[in-house]
Give the backbone structure.
Amino acid sequence: MRKASRRRRRDHPAAREGESKPLTDDELIEQAIRARQRAYAPYSGFAVGAAVLAASGRVITGCNVENASYGLTLCAERVALFKALSEGIRDFRKLAVVTDTGELTFPCGACRQVLWEFSPDLVVIVANLRGQRQTHLLRDLLPAPFDRHLLGEPGREQGDRGR
C-alpha cells in the first residue's frame, strides 16, 4: 500500500517540480475541479474550487468553506492562497477557479485584493463544469489595488508591519 501511494504522488501533476514539462491550464483546472468536490457549502450550495500554481511548479488547492455566520465564510481562492502561504510559498504564477454555473464566476473583490498582495502579475483562469473558460491577468481584474506603496512603507518586508 505504501508503494502505491508514493507512486500516485510522483505521478500527480503537483509533483512535477523540477521536471521540464510545465503544467497545462487543463491540468490546473482539473485540480480546481477536484478541490471543488471538497467544498463545504451547506447554506448556499455554491461550491467553488481553486488551484494555485506556484513558481516552483507545485499546485496548492482550496475550496470554499461556509459558516452559519456568513461573514466568516472563506472563498476557495483565499483558502488555496493561505494554505500555500502557511507552507512558506510566496511566488505564484497562475490560479484556476472552477464553479458549476452557466456564466463564468470571477474571484470576488476581497480575493482579488489578497491575491494582489503576493502576485500582481498572476494569471487568473476562470472555468465552469461546462468547459467554458477565460484567462485574465489579475492586474486587469483589479486595476486600482490598495497596496503597500499607499502605506508609505515601500521598503518594509511582508510580515514586518507593526514590529
Summary: The chain has one domain: 22-151.
